[in-house]
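> call design_seq(struct)
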């Protein structure tokens, strides 16, 4: 039976799988049901049940995601057990997000706080608006990060700067987030959703094997030596050169035409 959360998840004709992470309910807090439904959809991608060429993370309210639902934290009979369950479910969502090997775009309208900021950090391309704001938020309620923030933020801005941002609970405006490399592009607030959608559609139409390899190489690079990374690059580029997309890309270049990656899948 389809759940209400599942009905908000869409896969369009371009191959863009849209996964909302919050709604206008509860002040655009992270929606647990959406995270569970999103995980199920991502697992279908990894199993080949859904064929997605790009994933779009978004919110359906005025904010991308204002963080966890603190009121529910406080109301839980056992806060520790409740928060552990929420964190584990969010972390499984993120693990499967990486396992899809599909490019991830985030449409970051309004606030991305707490777990919302964590999710932005896992996007390959995060599009923000001039009014976008990001904030760790955890120290403000006496908690520590989840959602992989303590892993992703140091890899984006450096360990010292990550500690500073999280411990002082900095509010990062759009320009600061762009300068730090957290946001890839900043557009007018009214254009965030359409720009992110167009970016995801462009990726979905592109060379999916190439994008999957780029994600794999970049994500693995932090744990490899230069020699090991170059060995991985050699194996990857050689393998892609004999795929249908690799052949099409080279042939199109030589013929001075635009490659048709969609047509050779």
């Amino acid at each position: 039976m389809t759940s209400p959360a599942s009905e908000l998840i869409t896969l369009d004709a371009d191959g863009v799988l849209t996964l909302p992470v919050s709604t206008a309910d509860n002040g655009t807090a992270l929606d647990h049901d959406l995270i569970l439904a999103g995980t199920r959809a991502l697992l279908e991608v990894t199993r080949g049940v859904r064929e997605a060429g790009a994933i779009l993370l978004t919110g359906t309210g005025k904010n991308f995601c204002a963080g966890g639902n603190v009121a529910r934290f406080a109301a839980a009979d056992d806060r520790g057990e409740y928060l552990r369950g929420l964190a584990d479910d969010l972390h499984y969502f993120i693990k499967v997000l990486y396992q899809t090997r599909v490019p991830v775009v985030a449409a970051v309208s309004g606030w991305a706080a707490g777990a919302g900021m964590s999710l932005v950090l896992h996007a390959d391309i995060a599009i923000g608006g001039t009014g976008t704001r990001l904030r760790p938020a955890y120290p403000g309620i006496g908690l520590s990060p989840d959602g992989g923030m303590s892993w992703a933020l140091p890899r984006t801005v450096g360990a010292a700067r990550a500690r500073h941002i999280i411990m002082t609970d900095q509010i990062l405006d759009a320009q600061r987030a762009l300068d730090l490399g957290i946001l890839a592009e900043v557009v007018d607030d009214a254009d965030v959703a359409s720009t992110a959608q167009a970016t995801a559609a462009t990726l979905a139409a592109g060379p999916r094997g190439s994008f999957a390899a780029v994600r794999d190489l970049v994500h693995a690079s932090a744990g490899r030596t230069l020699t090991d990374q170059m060995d991985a690059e050699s194996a990857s580029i050689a393998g892609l050169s004999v795929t249908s997309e690799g052949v099409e890309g080279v042939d199109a270049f030589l013929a001075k035409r635009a490659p048709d990656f969609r047509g050779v899948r």
